[in-house]
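Predict the holo structure. Ligand: thiamine diphosphate.
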Amino acid sequence: MDIAPEKQRDMLRQMQTIRRFEERASDDYHAGDIYGVVHCYIGEEAVAVGVCSHLTDDDKIISTHRGHGHCIAKGADLNRMMAELYGRETGYCKGKGGSMHIADFGIGMLGANGIVAGGLPIIAGAGLAAQMDGQGGVAVCFFGDGASNAGPFHESINIAAKWKLPIFYICENNLHSAQTPASKTLAQDDVAARATGYGIPGVIVDGNDIFAVHEAAGAAVARARAGEGPTLIECKTYRWRAHTERPGQPDHRDPAEIEAWKKTDPIARLVDHLKTRQGQFSDEEFEAMDAEILGTIQASVEFSKASPFPAPEAALEDLFAD
Ligand SMILES: Cc1ncc(C[n+]2csc(CCOP(=O)(O)OP(=O)(O)O)c2C)c(N)n1
């Protein structure tokens, strides 16, 4: 693996930022400061970071309802993200979108999406635009195992394969879709197996291993940039928290399964790697990194609390139709 140690530390910083951002978002949601719905990505951080570490601002991604990790890995501004969760005017959607609608076109983040599988048609358009631009840009679609059972998954991959669009598809298979185990809905255990039907590579990786994700995404980026068409990567991973943070949210998962997956914590694995294999990292350095991250999260909360709520009249602005 040829990732420079500094880059590995950057990836760790991003993963830890995602985790700390969401821990705070969850706390503040339960305290009644954050509105709407919050879906946490904790446990899946290696996927977003391993993929986005290959991308530039010119490359596009589309996210899901569980989108904070994708936003942060693509370089979104933490203040504007937190302010959006807080429903403030300084947020990415002027406080009118909330957790599931964060977008930042300037960095190629085309948006989170509250519609399951809603990102799949959008990425086909983004891929076609990138192909027509001819500048070597790629478009990446994150989606869940649940979304892979919806029609847009098949429509998007079919046309992307046929037209050799510079896209790659990242299925975050966290084994559950809301309250439904994937084992009850997937006709085959592996989503990646469906790639065969479209004549494209289908790859399965350990989604909690940042290096495995990074390597697979690197090959998919290279293939897309070379004009060879899409790749479907299935990352086997797990969400640590319930489907949403809503109080009383049922969670039918087996506690033993949750505990077993926590033992494969992608952040702990990277810290361990940096300490033992690289020998260039210590617990003290990780603590210092973490303290710095907590400081930026605290600053984003203070920024949010100091920002006004949107004026009631603003509800009628930024509409496509009235
Ligand atoms: C079209 C549509 N159907 C149903 C829902 C309700 N819903 C929200 S999230 C979710 C589960 C999605 O599962 P998956 O795609 O595996 O993503 P995960 O939540 O596991 O990250 C469902 C059914 C929705 N938002 N949109």
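Residues 64-66, 114-116, 144-147, 174, 176-178, 243 surround thiamine diphosphate (CB under 6 Å). The chain has one domain: 5-301.
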